[in-house]
Design a protein that fits this description.
By secondary structure, this protein is an all-alpha fold. It contains 5 helices and no strands. The chain folds into 2 domains: 142 residues, Methane Monooxygenase Hydroxylase, Chain G, domain 1, CATH 1.20.58; 51 residues. Keywords: Coiled coil.
């Protein structure tokens, strides 16, 4: 049983509900019938979309192609609205066998829409590319007029000026880099000179520190000998 059969004959489950709750059964049947009618409308629009795809597949003139493309866009807008409407209606229903059947039918039709949409978009893209290639070939084959020659010459002059400006900018950047490198080199030279001039002072300080160490060790030894000679009670280091 397809979704066309809904609304014409109730299922066994719906007849049981009718016996227990006539009001709820009528409401459920009305909702399923409305969803079924909306699905039928959705399927009819999909059929129109398939015909548009067949027409685009055939060799069509540019004007016919634009008309078919406009019809395709309009049909897709309608289908998107119907899809959203059906999805909301199905979500509002209690999950039953009839609702599940409607959902399956809806998903099958949606898959057809996806296939058609991919086919149409692929054909439109291919035809637009062919028109673009034809336009390029026509322009290349057309004889060059005096105005075209003048515009081409002006464009070439602009390109040359731009290339010359770029070269000047790069040359100036290279000069700046060289100046910076010379400045860094001078700084290193100054640092080397400063370190060299202070090396003698550093060596003198190092020698004085070594002498101080030797004197301190010698003084300590003398104090120890004096302590051993005169006794710990008579020699005090303050």
């Amino acid at each position: 049983m397809s979704f066309q059969d809904f609304g014409s004959r109730p299922t066994a489950k719906s007849s049981v509900v009718k016996a227990s709750s006539p009001s709820n059964s009528r409401t459920s049947n009305d909702s399923l019938s409305y969803i079924s009618e909306t699905l039928l409308q959705y399927q009819r629009n999909v059929g129109i979309l398939e015909k548009i795809l067949q027409s685009l597949t055939a060799n069509t003139k540019a004007l016919q192609q634009k008309e078919l493309e406009a019809q395709y866009r309009a049909q897709m807008d309608v289908l998107e609205q119907l899809q959203e409407k059906i999805m909301k209606l199905l979500q509002q229903q209690t999950q039953t066998t009839a609702v599940t059947k409607l959902q399956r039918d809806f998903e099958r039709v949606k898959q057809r829409v996806t296939v058609i949409e991919d086919g149409v978009e692929r054909i439109l893209k291919s035809q637009k590319q062919q028109l673009a290639n034809k336009s390029i070939l026509d322009n290349a084959a057309a004889p060059e007029t005096a105005e075209d020659s003048y515009q081409r010459m002006q464009l070439q002059m602009q390109k040359d000026r731009l290339a010359e400006e770029i070269m000047r900018e790069r040359e100036e950047e290279i000069r700046n880099i060289n100046r910076g490198m010379h400045q860094v080199n001078e700084i290193y030279k100054d640092l080397a000179h400063i370190v060299g001039s202070q090396q003698e002072q550093i060596d003198t300080i190092e020698n004085q520190m070594e002498e101080s160490k030797v004197n301190a060790e010698s003084g300590l030894k003398q104090v120890e000998r004096a302590n051993e000679k005169y006794g710990s009670g008579q020699c005090v280091i303050s």
